[in-house]
Write a structure and sequence with these properties.
Layout: E1 9-14, E2 17-22, E3 27-29, E4 44-45, E5 57-58, E6 61-62, H1 63-72, E7 81-84, E8 97-100, H2 102-106, H3 110-120, H4 123-128, H5 150-160, H6 167-173, H7 180-189, E9 207-209, E10 215-218, H8 236-241, E11 249-252, E12 259-268, E13 273-280, E14 285-292, E15 299-305, H9 310-319, H10 328-337
Parallel strand pairs: 10-15
Antiparallel strand pairs: 1-2, 2-3, 3-4, 5-6, 7-8, 9-10, 11-12, 12-13, 13-14, 14-15
């Protein structure tokens, strides 16, 4: 992989350092003001190998955490860790990284998963009622599971889309738990991204889910929304709105390389939606509507207008504050086929 083979570049602060980060996993540490330049300052790098662990680092800081912070925002909690989706610890591209809780990350470990299945009967049974683990004697390496709350277990099940088989399902599929076909089907379903039908959407052309959980798009050529929360403790729309800080990357496409940063945003409580004015990486502007779908609690993102000049963009953005959500479909269609 080449250092200059990238489409999106952004800036992030991490542990009192400023980094420029690219979507190919490369990072560039800025020189500190009024400080002597260090050997690794102002150099693009993918990181160096470390003898004590398999991750790439820069001055003992793990590169994957810096990249995750830059493209996916800070971890939801201090207990979240960065997961490499393809299990390759050297692949630090943003689309290969995600924040997981300790529980979610542990369920990827076949030994931990087998232990839970042995004690509780299935992963599903444990996630439905995590307190059942309290009735068993656990070795020190597993005692942390006693602290898993029902809310954390539910979020884990929703977020990772775990598909575990009940005895009824096993009979219906005709596969035994230890058969090759059963194991392959089981492993293929765990952590597999939803399709729009699994997410509760219909066959509406132009509507699809993105690669970010809880985010769908209509006539919108982006597939990542790094500011959308993974979990919600209260009002879903407000939780999303609070993340929309000016200057942050709101969405981007891993295909075209285009990205949009938040310029302004406004929440509409009655319409249960958000209106944003975004600035594209090429200098153009885009007004975006975000609807909270009541049927499945997913957010649908619509491109509502694409004015070229800033003054016109501001006027259009203000005008959109009074547009009903039911008009989002028509406006998005016009943006694409105008």
């Amino acid at each position: 992989m080449m250092l200059n083979d990238f489409k999106v570049e952004t800036i992030v602060r991490y542990r009192d350092e400023t980094y420029r980060v690219r979507d190919n996993g490369a990072i560039y540490r800025e020189k500190k003001a009024e400080k002597r330049k260090r050997p690794l300052d102002c150099i693009w790098t993918f990181g160096k190998e470390n003898r004590t662990h398999p991750y790439l680092t820069i001055s003992n800081e793990r590169v994957h955490r810096i990249v995750a912070m830059a493209f996916h925002g800070p971890p939801p909690t201090e207990k979240h860790v960065v997961d490499h989706i393809d299990t390759n610890c050297r692949n630090n591209r943003p689309d290969n990284l995600r924040w997981l809780t300790r529980l979610e990350n542990s369920l990827k470990n076949p030994i931990t998963k087998a232990k839970i299945e042995y004690l509780c009967g299935s992963i599903d049974a444990f996630l439905e009622n995590p307190s059942i683990i309290n009735s068993f004697e656990l070795s020190p390496s597993y005692t942390w599971m006693r602290s898993v709350t029902p809310e954390e277990a539910k979020n884990c099940k929703d977020r990772m889309n775990l598909r575990v088989f009940s005895p009824t399902t096993k009979k219906r599929t005709g596969s035994k738990p230890n058969s090759i076909n059963y194991r392959r089907f089981y492993e293929n379903k765990i952590f597999k991204p939803l399709n729009k039908f699994d997410a509760g959407f219909g066959r509406e052309p132009g509507l699809d889910i993105s690669k970010t959980l809880w985010c769908a798009t209509y006539m919108f050529d982006v597939n990542y929304f790094p500011l959308c929360p993974d979990t919600f403790n209260g009002d879903r729309l407000n939780s999303y709105f609070e993340k929309l800080s000016k200057g942050k990357i709101f969405c981007y496409s891993s295909y075209s390389g285009s990205s949009y940063k938040v310029h302004e945003s406004r929440m509409r409580i009655i319409e249960e939606s958000i209106i944003l004015l975004c600035k594209k990486s090429d200098g153009m502007f885009l007004v975006v509507g975000v609807e909270l779908n009541k049927k499945n609690n997913w957010f649908i993102h619509y491109p509502l207008s694409s004015p070229e000049l800033f003054e016109r963009a501001q006027k259009t953005y203000s005008k959109m504050h009074n547009v009903p959500v039911k008009e989002f479909y028509n406006l998005a269609y016009k943006v694409v086929y105008k």
